[in-house]
Specification:
Structural class: alpha+beta
Distance between the termini: 31 Å
Radius of gyration: 17 Å
InterPro entries: MpsC
Number of domains: 2
Protein name: DUF2294 family protein
Order of helices and strands: HEEHHEEHEEHHHEE
Domain Na+-translocating membrane potential-generating system MpsC: 7-108, 133-228
Helix content: 40-55%
């Protein structure tokens, strides 16, 4: 099965998984396979119950509920990716933009690319992107120990940060407040990222969506930009 067929099959299977778990599937799913990454972008994804909660200002309730539902889906998502692409997944990052009814999953295999020749690392504006990411991280918690990024396609940019947690955050995680911390960090960093005015000019593209998630154990983070190129 070629990559295009794999992407189509994964999109269909993920649509069914989400529909079964949430009671409503996304209107559209776009899958990008770029080993060791599998990026899944969903749109038109909001259940009737969630809409009622949002209308009542219960955004945090919706986000927290989705955190737990996605945890229950994690093994199935890994299994689908393994069965269709033969890629073993180490971790799945995910985030939502409730106002736009969009969301993203980024599945990462243990085979993280080593330094060296990788065309996905070579794109116009990379250094400026890294500087903006470091500045935003500094505002939210601390500058990361390292930043790397990959242009998976003309419409998707992945940024990986390592070493971003401050001591108080590590203590909250130790005390079992990791989910509360994740929701709070999503709100803070998400707003800083989406409101940044420099990325469109740096990337010569309209930023349609920005998503962010963390692996607290590994002390890293994935930021995904969904782009619409100007050319």
């Amino acid at each position: 099965m070629d990559i295009k067929a794999q992407q189509t099959k994964l999109a269909n299977n993920f649509g069914k998984l989400l529909r079964d778990k949430f009671g409503k599937g996304p209107e559209a799913i776009h899958v990008t396979i770029s080993n060791p990454y599998v990026l899944v972008y969903v749109s038109g994804f909001l259940s009737a119950t969630e809409q009622v909660l949002l209308d009542q200002g219960q955004d945090i309730t919706v986000k927290t509920t989705r955190e737990y539902l996605m945890k229950s889906l994690d093994p199935e998502i890994r299994g689908q990716i393994k069965g269709i692409t033969d890629i073993e997944i180490q971790h799945i990052y995910y985030d939502w933009n409730l106002s736009r009814q969009t969301g993203i999953f980024v599945a990462v295999s243990p085979a993280i690319p080593e330094d060296g020749e990788d065309s996905r690392r070579k794109y116009t504006g990379k250094e400026d992107v890294h500087q903006e990411i470091a500045s935003i991280s500094q505002q939210a918690e601390k500058a990361p120990d390292s930043v790397d990024s990959y242009m998976l396609s003309s419409r998707s940019l992945l940024v990986i940060r390592e070493g971003i947690l401050v001591p108080i955050e590590k203590q909250l995680i130790t005390l079992g407040f990791d989910e509360n911390l994740r929701v709070a960090k999503r709100q803070l960093e998400g707003e800083l990222l989406i409101n940044n005015t420099h990325f469109p000019s740096i990337l010569d593209a309209r930023v349609q969506d920005v998503f962010v998630d963390w692996d607290f154990i590994l002390d890293n983070s994935v930021i995904a930009f969904i782009l619409k190129p100007n050319n």
